[in-house]
Amino acid sequence: MNIAFIGLGNMGGKMAHNLLKAGLNVSGFDLSEIAIEHFAKAGGVVCESPQAAAKNADVVITMLPAAKHVKDVYLGENGVFEVLKAGSLCIDSSTIDPQTIKDLAAVAEAKGIKICDAPVSGGTIGAGAGTLTFMVGAAAQTFQDAQPILSHMGKNLVHCGEVGAGQIAKICNNMILGISMIAVAEGMALGAKLGIDTKALAGVINTSSGRCWSSEVCNPWPGISENAPAGRGYTDGFATGLMLKDMGLAIEAAAQVKQPILMGGLAEQMYQQRCLQGHAGLDFSSIIQQYLAPENNE
Ligand code: NAD
């Protein structure tokens, strides 16, 4: 089986590496020379365009920043749909809006190409360890076809429904995460200001009803959660800029169906402000800095 992997960045590079480790043939393309270098070192076949990578491929996997890149790779001038044979399978793991993948699926279907959205959670650590969760939107047979490939890169493969359902699951989950992180930051900052020991406070929250991933695994207060970005200056985590993108996707999707998302809207504005202040590259848990006096932020 020949696999084409397009988008070999922080996530895609590690995912492609896991496919290579499993002994699969992987041809790849990325606009970044550094990404290409790492891929070549891991044993991948470097190609000079998405089309060149996809030419003899049975499976195409894309892991790109946003919808415009995904559309460009599938439908653009050197787009892969032009060269893929009928019966081949496309897996888009980028986090994008549900409508874009549905539009791509309509084009693919007309060409006899199978396609699914398979966004992930688990971050760069999960991508490296091959333990990602894939939220898959696909016809039942396409999900079955994708499973053996996805299982080299992930541990939990969840069939969410038809094409687009994976992206719906992803953006709802990340909207909750973005809101819950702000709630935990607010609670931790209030507790500290009122004079409670922050470890004691976190201990109570994490055995009480305030407990969530943001309080337990990725607490924004430094020194609470082992290995959390808060303990290393909010580096090497899930960038605030990417969280802002995901909150924007939730707002866009909500607007399409006229569904109010009040907390989501407020949270999006808070991440927007952080990015404007120059913190787009810091982990999104650094939102707690909005609540602290300047001396705490040094
Ligand atoms: P990244 O920016 O590190 O990687 C994206 C790669 O795509 C880059 O190497 C870039 O050069 C390449 N690229 C852009 N346009 C291209 C094109 N036209 N052709 C070929 N390559 C192109 O981003 P990432 O962190 O790997 O994230 C990828 C996707 O996964 C995003 O949609 C993101 O929201 C999602 N995601 C990221 C994380 C995370 O923790 N980083 C977690 C879950 C989901």
UniProtKB/TrEMBL annotation:
<dbReference type="InterPro" id="IPR013328">
    <property type="entry name" value="6PGD_dom2"/>
</dbReference>
<dbReference type="InterPro" id="IPR036291">
    <property type="entry name" value="NAD(P)-bd_dom_sf"/>
</dbReference>
<keyword id="KW-0560">Oxidoreductase</keyword>
<dbReference type="Pfam" id="PF03446">
    <property type="entry name" value="NAD_binding_2"/>
</dbReference>
<dbReference type="GO" id="GO:0050661">
    <property type="term" value="F:NADP binding"/>
</dbReference>
<protein>
    <recommendedName>
        <fullName>3-hydroxyisobutyrate dehydrogenase</fullName>
        <ecNumber>1.1.1.31</ecNumber>
    </recommendedName>
</protein>
<comment type="similarity">
    <text>Belongs to the HIBADH-related family.</text>
</comment>
<dbReference type="InterPro" id="IPR029154">
    <property type="entry name" value="HIBADH-like_NADP-bd"/>
</dbReference>
<dbReference type="GO" id="GO:0051287">
    <property type="term" value="F:NAD binding"/>
</dbReference>
<dbReference type="GO" id="GO:0008442">
    <property type="term" value="F:3-hydroxyisobutyrate dehydrogenase activity"/>
</dbReference>
<comment type="pathway">
    <text>Amino-acid degradation; L-valine degradation.</text>
</comment>
<dbReference type="InterPro" id="IPR006115">
    <property type="entry name" value="6PGDH_NADP-bd"/>
</dbReference>
<keyword id="KW-0520">NAD</keyword>
<dbReference type="InterPro" id="IPR002204">
    <property type="entry name" value="3-OH-isobutyrate_DH-rel_CS"/>
</dbReference>
<feature type="domain" description="3-hydroxyisobutyrate dehydrogenase-like NAD-binding">
    <location>
        <begin position="164"/>
        <end position="290"/>
    </location>
</feature>
<feature type="active site">
    <location>
        <position position="170"/>
    </location>
</feature>
<dbReference type="InterPro" id="IPR011548">
    <property type="entry name" value="HIBADH"/>
</dbReference>
<keyword id="KW-0101">Branched-chain amino acid catabolism</keyword>
<feature type="domain" description="6-phosphogluconate dehydrogenase NADP-binding">
    <location>
        <begin position="2"/>
        <end position="161"/>
    </location>
</feature>
<dbReference type="Pfam" id="PF14833">
    <property type="entry name" value="NAD_binding_11"/>
</dbReference>
<dbReference type="InterPro" id="IPR008927">
    <property type="entry name" value="6-PGluconate_DH-like_C_sf"/>
</dbReference>
<dbReference type="GO" id="GO:0006574">
    <property type="term" value="P:L-valine catabolic process"/>
</dbReference>
<dbReference type="InterPro" id="IPR015815">
    <property type="entry name" value="HIBADH-related"/>
</dbReference>
